Amino acid sequence: MPLFKWDSTYSVKVKxxxxxxQQLFKILNELHDGMIAGRGQEVxxxxxxxxxxxxxxxxxxxxxxxxAAGYPQLQAHIDEHRNFTDKVKVASAKYKEGGVGMTMxxxxxxxxxxxxxxxxxxxxxxxxxxxxxxA
Length: 135
Known about the structure:
CATH superfamily: Hemerythrin-like
Number of domains: 1
Mean pLDDT: 88
CATH topology: Four Helix Bundle (Hemerythrin (Met), subunit A)
Radius of gyration: 15 Å
Structural class: mainly alpha
């Protein structure tokens, strides 16, 4: 049973970004499932790599759409994305250096950030982008 469930409170009213966010939930659930199976440390590096690759792709797409639409809070949004990416890179480096116990810490950080970012920062662009024909 997935720990992270998508519901309408996460929708940013832009279909491709909602689909991306749902994929991010899937990645988090991979880590959770690995932890439940007693393989959390084993799957952590794979999940971190997948998370970095996917968020970089998603962030670039989101930022390109906001830039094209003239979103006034673009730089603040980019800064949020870079901060997240930097923290995931640090977590990955710590794990590679033998960071034991990183699984729960990583899961908590990523899930908390995504929930707050999607429901807070991302929701701020919904109306702006929708008004400019992005749905």
